[in-house]
Design a protein that fits this description.
CATH topology: Thrombin, subunit H
Shape: globular
Structural class: mainly beta
Radius of gyration: 16 Å
Number of domains: 1
Oligomer: single chain
Distance between the termini: 45 Å
CATH architecture: Beta Barrel
Number of helices: 0
CATH superfamily: Bacteriophage SPP1 head-tail adaptor protein
Strand order of the largest sheet: 1-2-4-8-6-5
């Protein structure tokens, strides 16, 4: 199965709790789940605007396809490493393409502004 041109290098990150070895306190941070090549297509249906607490929030949805990796879920995020470290939040559960040839999911980039 052809999952598209894999032309963006990305890092999929998961939210993790890390314990400080000196003080023993817990810190929440993002850790690398996998780094791989992916196909990213911006959805052309237009940007969506949300207002929350007097801040305008603009979302740019996109579709991401990559080789099959088990365990990727909406609580994770994607960092596009080849274009200004674009940060994308996964918003749908990944769909399997073919027989574990690849996965596809939707993600959104959030841009905030007070204009």
């Amino acid at each position: 199965m052809n999952i598209g041109k894999l032309d963006h290098f990305v890092r999929v990150e998961q939210y993790a709790t890390v314990q400080d070895p000196v003080f023993g306190s817990e810190t929440k941070t993002w850790s690398t789940y996998v780094e791989t090549w992916a196909n990213i297509e911006d959805v052309t249906s237009g940007n969506q605007e949300h207002t929350k607490s007097d801040l305008r929030q603009l979302t740019r949805p996109c579709r991401i396809r990559m080789r099959y990796f088990a365990g990727i879920e909406p609580a994770m995020r994607v960092v596009v490493l080849d274009r200004d470290n674009r940060l994308l939040q996964i918003v749908t559960k990944p769909a399997e393409l073919g027989r574990k040839d690849g996965i596809e999911f939707m993600a959104e980039e959030y841009v905030t502004g007070g204009e």
